Amino acid sequence: MVVALLTVLTLSVLQLGFALLIRNTVLDAAAEGARFAALADNTLADGAARATALVTT
Q1: Which helix (H) or strand (E) holds 55?
Q2: 32-50 pLDDT, tens per residue?
Q3: Which domain holds residue 50?
Q4: Half-sphere CA count of 1, side-chain side, radius 13 A
């Protein structure tokens, strides 16, 4: 019984870690896309494309 509880706890902590990793990756990609769009000669669509490219690669 204790082994099952420890297994569930361990897997829950790992799942939380993966969720936070994905959250941080998406937030960083959005920030990078906004910085890219703010540069001269770039549009909002360019920034959105940059953010999408960062998330999908």
Answers
A1: helix 44-56
A2: 999 999 998 999 999 999 9
A3: 2-56
A4: 0
